[in-house]
Amino acid sequence: MRRLIPVLASLATLATVDVSAQAQAQPAANDHYCLQGRQWGYPGNCLFTTYQQCQATASGTDAYCGINPRYAFQQQRRYY
């Protein structure tokens, strides 16, 4: 029983790491626009579905909105 707990904890950690790596490999469906600027860096805060949402958040700050590079430059699927 003493050995079982560390083994289960290790397996749970590995499963979590694998799932998060897969999530980072492909952009989410709702991250088409990024809030960018001096404080955000590049690519910025990429949590916006629409350009208007991003603009509303950037309003009154020195930030601006741009298309998410992960979304813009992802490999396109070929259909034959």
SSE blueprint and pairings:
Layout (H helix, E strand, L loop, with lengths): L3 H22 L7 E5 L3 E8 L2 H8 L5 E4 L1 H4 L8
Antiparallel strand pairs: 1-2, 1-3
Describe this structure in words.
With 80 residues, the chain is of the alpha+beta class. It is 42% helix and 21% strand. It has a domain at 25-73. It has three helices and three strands; from the N terminus they run H-E-E-H-E-H. Strand 1 (33-37) and strand 2 (41-48) form a beta hairpin. It is flat, with a radius of gyration of 19 Å. The termini are far apart. The model is unreliable at 17-22 (pLDDT under 50).
Defining key terms:
three-stranded antiparallel beta sheet; alpha+beta; 42% helix; 80 residues; 21% strand
